[in-house]
Amino acid sequence: MQSHTQISTLEAAESKEASGLSRSNRLFVLELSEDRIRSMNPDGSDRKTIVTDCHLPDGMVVDAEEGHIYWSNMGIPNLDDGSIDEDA
């Protein structure tokens, strides 16, 4: 029997959030309705707002190896980035 891994893309139209994990096992969540990025433990405890005023955010990627997060904004041709503070 052949095994496989299913990969799913989370679209903004389907969810109000996108997320990813850092090397320090912090979960980063893009809250579309609040225009911000938050950091927390995987169980939801120790929530911290790390980026505010993301104008119409529509996607986020966590680069755990390099310690960065990247996010994009709807209708604005740019890509913003930030270093992941291990305390965030």
Summarize the structure.
The chain has no helices and 7 strands. It has 88 residues and is an all-beta fold.
Give a quick set of tags describing it.
88 residues; mainly beta; 7 strands; 0% helix
Sheet with most strands: strand arrangement: 1-2-3-4
Nearest-angstrom radius of gyration? 14 Å
Query: What is the N-to-C order of secondary-structure elements (H for helix, E for strand)?
Result: EEEEEEE
**Domain module count:** 1
- As a percent range, the share of helical residues equals under 10%
- Weakly predicted, low-confidence segments: 4-17
Q: What structural class is derived from the secondary structure elements?
A: mainly beta
Shape: globular
Q: Overall pLDDT, averaged?
A: 70
Largest sheet: 4 strands, antiparallel
Number of E-type strands:
7
Cα separation of the termini = 43 Å
